[in-house]
Amino acid sequence: MRAYSPKQDVQKKSYYNDRFHVVPHLPRLNVEADEQFLSDIDVLKQKFTVLEAYIENGHLVVWIPAKENLKAVKFLKEKLAYDMMMELSAIDYIASKGGFDIFYEMLSLSKHKRIRVKCFIEEKEELFSVESVFKMANWSEREMYDMYGVKVKNHHNLKRILMPDDWYDHPLRKTYPLQGDETAAWYEVDKIFGKEARDTIGPEIRDGAAIDRYDTTRFARLGHEVPFGVDITDGKEPEHTPLAYQEEGGVGLFGVRIIKELDENKSVQLKKRR
Amino acid sequence: MQQVNRLKPFFENINFEREDNTMVVNFGPQHPSAHGQLRLILELQGEEIVKAVPTIGYLHRGMEKMGENMMYNEFLPTTDRMDYIASTSNNYGFALAVEQLLGIEAPRRAEVIRTMLLELNRIISHLFWLATHALDVGAMSIFLYAFREREFAMDLMEDYCGARLTHSAVRIGGVPLDLPQNWCEDLTKFIGILSEEIDKYEGLLTQNRIWRMRLENVGIITPEMAKSWGCSGVALRGSGFQWDLRKEMPYGIYGELDFDIPYSTSCDSYGRYKCYMQEMRESMKILKQLIPMYKGSEPQLMAHAPEYISAPKEDIMTQNYSLMQHFVLVTQGMRPPKGEVYVATESPKGELGYMIVSDGTPYAYKMKLRAPSFWHTGLLEDLLPGHQLADVVTIIGNLNIVFGEIDR
Predict the structure, then answer these.
(1) What is the tens place of the pLDDT at every residue in A111-145?
(2) The complex's ipTM?
(3) What SS3 state is found at A113?
(4) Residue B285: enclosing H or E segment and its boundaries?
(5) Where in chain A is the domain with CATH 3.30.460.80?
(6) B62–A171 C-beta distance less than 8 A
(7) How many domains does chain B have?
(8) How many CB pairs under 8 A join A and B?
(9) CA distances (Å), A36 to each of A40, A71, B223, in order?
(10) A189: closest chain B residue by CA
């Protein structure tokens, strides 16, 4: 039986998977392995619901309910000296879990420790903004909204940051193809020339690796040079394809000679450089 | 409301006629001292800025998306294009993150070479910063001098890997090449030249009246602001925190090296300028220590982890199993363990973090690139109001933002 893969996930997948490959796991340690983390988690547990906590690659990972994110982050900052938030974003698990994992990567300058607060939200669920605690969340949450469409409550200016304001869909979702969707292909044409120009211009080619051998305006073929813009869609190359050097009469096609034809009898060799 | 599409001009300063006398000025996205594609919408009261709205996204290439659609080794050259002034630091940050995910370590010699490249790149980046920043502020000669020395450093880079800007000289698991002959001697010569030249730069700038007037008390980032905005690197150190990941949370061989972390409590642009200058000296100090470390190391360059990393070229050409392994790794890519890592390194701009979530397939499930300049740009929103229009150029230049990594 073929392995199940979510149909909505259009990201690149490996073309071959070994049936007997056992995926190893990055070791997760118990919180007891680190004294500092242990005492922190004890304090945190008294105030908040900690769903899960473990140490992964030296970071304490704490899972909390999404409703408590703002309070927990504030508590960590004020009471537990995790005074900087370095990064926050979402991870798209819509296909498998129906929502996003949100993570807050925090750093304590005094303890030299990093902690990652994680929570899960449903796809349409709203998240409290942590902008009031860390100003860096202003831009990070905008980016998260832009890239994943995670709605953030109480953010003073929740609008797109990297993509244009009128962009359709959120590019980092797994449902969004790498080359962009249909709307993306028409975005610039519509914006600059208007929808009525769609027929004359055609969609934007968003695949950087796309090659069209019949497009003589953008592609050249070595050994089969064809003048710019000549239609060769019938498969026949023009008879006058200039394969010869211009001394051999090869460039006659263009009408203009770059150098006049060389007559060896009339040529003079200079004794001295002029 | 104006129709803004179809290339019709859109006048933002329509506000100027409508309300009071604040004027809205569009700074960028094509402005030579915006250091890339930064668009600042500034609201001016006379020459004073009352509101600043930084707008980014003009160089967005979707690197995080690309990272999720490329095998780990394929993605490495793409990281060059983040902070293209110091591409080795991006390569290294990525390589280190993947190595920690795989649970492997680069051999000692590779780590020494990497650190050499990193510090050389830090010097290149800082020289570039100094050159462009001084040019923005009006000191043209510094631009020419700093670029001259940067050229020597880039020649060293070219001698090592053939590239000058986008090096990709670090691989996951080590480095591909050993140092060429006489490279260390050339490096020593370069350090000699640079240490003299830095004194000259400082002679031109540090007590220069115009330079001080333009930089002192301009762009004051208070410690609270720096922490709240997630500042890192010199922006954080300039605000009185002696925090450098190389020292505070060492990675690679930084733990064995002897160097200082310059910091400043003045919180202004001038303090940050002094940090940058001192950091170049510290980098030279590190480079000097690395030369004997290189000479005393074993010649192995790539980690031995047949599951993830191709065997050396010689083995591939002579041994069947190595060839098969190499073929699988190139065509299908390595399959790291399931898990997530966030690995932060100190790039010349600040804390460069790679968050990789792996689901055990050759493609990362999630790749988050934490580029320090992103928040240094966001900070402008708070930093600029109250300053004069001319200070905008100083502040942007001083924060050392690079749009390759802001927009990713």
Answers:
(1) 899 999 999 999 888 899 999 999 999 999 999 99
(2) 0.86
(3) strand
(4) helix B269-295
(5) 28-135
(6) yes
(7) 2
(8) 135
(9) 6, 21, 25
(10) B6
